[in-house]
User: Fold this.
Amino acid sequence: MLFGFYLSWRATRLHRVHHRVDTTRVALEAALARRRTAALALAAADGTEATAALAAAARTAGEASLTGERDLAESTLSRALRDCLEFRDQDRCWGMLRPQLAEVEAAAKGVHMARTFHNAAVSDTRRARRSVLVRTFRLAGTAPLPDYFEIDDEPPRLPLLPVGPDTL
Amino acid sequence: MRVGLVCPYAWDVPGGVQQHIGDLAEALLGMGHEVSVLAPVGGADGVRTPGYLVPAGRPVPVPYNGSVARLSFGPRTAARVRRWISEGDFDVLHIHEPFAPSVSLLACWAAEGPLVATFHTSNPRSRAMAVSSAALRSAMEKINGRIAVSEAARRTLVEHLGGDAVLIPNGVAVRRFASAEPLPGWPGPGGSIGFLGRLDEPRKGLSVLLEAFTLMAPARPSLRLLVAGPGDPAAAMAAVPEHLRERVVPLGRLDDADKVRAYHSADVFCAPNLGGESFGIVLTEAMAAGAAIVASDIPAFSAVLDRGAAGELFTTGDPAHLAERAGALLDDPGRRAELSRAARRAVHAYDWETVAADVAHVYQTVLTRGGAGRGEPGGVRLDTGPRATALLRRETR
Assistant:
């Protein structure tokens, strides 16, 4: 009886970490989609050569989200964002694009957060699945072992562009 | 958004974590969120308790993490925690120091739903101990979003728990530091340099500043040094020649209001730290006060000062270089004003309003549910304990 109780406690915990992986995955997808949209919006509002590579990277990432080669495409988008925004020449007038820039910055931060939380959930789940008890009693059922999502998600640094609460 | 913040340490005892939670709560309120803070309250007289504070019981002094912490633990506190959670109807619960054996850990056990945790300290030993226990591991597994306030705290987390955390540094309440009257008699006509920090901790670098002062003093007969902070200055002062000592003015430990005034009391503010500083809250406070800063070029300071644009940098541990930089600043009021403006601009990135926006972004990320959360109730609720159905449900997962 006591053992049954303990087993159900372990199963509840396992269910919880699996659930966490599911929700963090959804949040990650949402964050990635928001970043692609933000990058495209910035490129569209700018409309010059400087952001053309950004738009291309965002479109590639969008297509990859359907086909599966995602990690590479999303990393490329991260790099494109940094190249475009960090090494911008100071003479260029970005003043008009402030709202778009703020949205891109917030969205890039969001991707980093969502991915960090997702990978933490995956790590907790994989650790729980390693336990002898969980394997012996097949507590995880048929649930697949979750995978880490590894990309380069370093957000661009825009030091003189404070992100206000209104950009969330 | 309805946010529940949990503070493990006694609210009426001053401390970094309490200050952090109070500032965060006020910034979140300013952004239009609803906030409730649960903390032990000791009932000391004359302590102002803000409206958002919910007392969780009387704290007991316990040796923890190498010092004496005032914590609250036990069945009565646990009952209060459960009531606070069930009556609070929170969208997200933000637990600080989740492994502190106090209301934080109790809240971790009692709650289920969107949980965010902030890790402040980086004490490897207590952390390693904590994770080995199954009860603590189960608390850890509930946390959807982890925040570390410094790179050091994040590293300990990764090493001992596996799984990463988002880095969101401490904020500085810029408005609180923005303006104040200088302390009486300061900065004085002959120029002055200010220092804030523990006097007897070598890493804070007071000895470097005193050596630099000794180099500068002969050529500047009325230059004075303002030294504020707790600790015994005797050891560091021994390096200063006898006849110069009266121009080094130790003010001892200052209360909050006087600390703000101290930042406005010197012509040049110096942060001579030798390293180990994960972030440098003193530096951001000085920037918020609009001080003309000269700081050592350790990576953290260089980053905060925007690689020298918001304050002069000198070679870490080099008194001659510090003397040269500080002297140049003392002679050039125009440059000081320029640095002051730049510092006020750069500190904006560390303002609580900015930092709280990042924390709110974490809440938002944790609350994103989409299709996966369908059918399950949202928001924070009480943990109902093990469910036998979890054993049956496993096949459908």
